[in-house]
Design goal:
Blueprint: H1 21-31, H2 53-67, H3 84-94
Length: 103
């Protein structure tokens, strides 16, 4: 039973993640070059609904932000931004790279 409804909000980032150590460690190791000021390969998280992909991603990025002051990242909710155009536009908008686009 869920006792705190805040955990269901997209912006909620947990202080710790349980039972997903392997996944958090894998994602952290892929993003490790960022701590040295280098770029990293793109990361694609996949799996069934409800397994914790968003939770792990947001938790890991938050931990990374604690060590890298100027980390430019963007969260995209693909349930809301489901078209390729909207996903790309939201990504660019989030990192302040948009220009006026005539539609």
């Amino acid at each position: 039973m869920i006792t705190d409804a805040r955990v269901l909000q997209p912006e909620f980032i947990p202080r710790e993640v349980t039972h997903r150590d392997a996944e958090v460690n894998t994602l952290s190791s892929v993003l490790q070059p960022i701590l040295d000021g280098n770029s990293t390969d793109p990361v694609f998280l996949h799996g069934p609904s409800g397994v914790g992909k968003t939770c792990i991603a947001q938790f890991t990025v938050e931990r990374l932000r604690e060590n890298v002051v100027d980390l430019n990242h963007q969260y995209i909710n693909c349930w809301e931004d489901y078209s390729r155009f909207k996903t790309l536009y939201t990504l660019l908008e989030g990192i302040n790279k948009t220009i006026d686009i005539h539609r």
